[in-house]
């Protein structure tokens, strides 16, 4: 692969590793998990899930290489079209297709960036959210940044997607210049779950969401403490606050016993 004449273009949005575009490819720092992720991408694409990038090995600098998926990746503040019912349903269906495509993936000798979560049902993306999705003309066409994938339960991914797109996150409308009062996060959560196609209750999703946010808070704080971007501390604080607020949406009888790790 001769890319000497291609200019590296930094892609924004990541907060853990530098990501650049070189022509029609994307390059990012590799890690011990990279061979597993490359195998996973090949596996799900062979199962018909072509909305994820094609794995292309390593470049001359030892960075992971995948194909570039053209389109728009929404940043924050999110564009108003992101909150359409069509996008919401498309997101639920795409996540289900990704999970189903991971069936049969060979877990022997697999190494993951994030630990597996029991019960293991599928390979979770672990960061399924609009900022890791590609759109063209307002339609969802891609799911990217799969490097934090690991085995886990379906509901863990669905809960985080709901957190970001229902939405239930504290920063969902930060900086937005449009009105958002028309959105009903509870009804949108139900729509997303129906689109995914399994009968998870709101309580089940809220419980998984709280667990996910507490884990994210701990992970973000640890990354900041070990020299990661300083803004990860702000992320950790938001995750903690959102976890407490969402936990409060459940009655004491609905709330499962948990030990916090933050």
From TrEMBL:
Protein name, UniProt field: Trifolitoxin immunity domain-containing protein
* Top-rank taxon, per record: Bacteria
Ranges for the Aminoglycoside phosphotransferase domain? Answer: 113-174
Lineage at the top is: Bacteria, Bacillati, Actinomycetota, Actinomycetes, Micrococcales
The record, for InterPro entries, names: Aminoglycoside_PTrfase, Kinase-like_dom_sf
Q: List the source organism.
A: Promicromonospora soli
What Pfam families does the record tag this protein with?
A: APH
């Amino acid at each position: 692969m001769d890319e000497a004449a291609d200019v590296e273009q930094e892609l924004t949005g990541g907060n853990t590793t530098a990501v650049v575009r070189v022509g029609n490819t994307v390059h990012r720092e590799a890690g011990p998990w990279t061979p597993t992720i490359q195998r996973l991408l090949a596996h799900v694409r062979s199962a018909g899930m072509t909305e994820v990038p094609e794995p292309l090995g390593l470049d001359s600098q030892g960075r992971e290489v995948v194909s570039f998926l053209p389109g728009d990746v929404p940043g924050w503040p999110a564009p108003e079209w992101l909150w359409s019912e069509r996008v919401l349903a498309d997101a639920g269906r795409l996540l289900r297709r990704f999970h189903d495509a991971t069936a049969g993936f060979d877990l022997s000798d697999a190494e993951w960036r994030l630990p597996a979560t029991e019960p293991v049902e599928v390979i979770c993306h672990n960061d399924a959210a609009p900022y890791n999705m590609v759109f063209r003309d307002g339609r969802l066409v891609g799911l990217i940044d799969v490097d934090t994938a690991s085995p886990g339960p379906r509901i863990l991914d669905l809960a985080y997607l709901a957190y970001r797109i229902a939405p239930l996150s504290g920063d969902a409308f930060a900086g937005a210049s449009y009105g958002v009062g028309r959105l009903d996060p509870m009804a949108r959560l139900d729509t997303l779950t129906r689109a995914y196609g399994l009968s998870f209750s709101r309580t089940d999703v809220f419980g998984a969401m709280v667990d996910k946010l507490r884990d994210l808070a701990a992970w973000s704080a640890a990354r900041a403490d070990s020299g990661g971007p300083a803004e990860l501390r702000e992320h950790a604080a938001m995750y903690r606050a959102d976890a407490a607020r969402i936990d409060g949406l459940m009655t004491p009888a609905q709330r499962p016993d948990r030990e916090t790790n933050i």
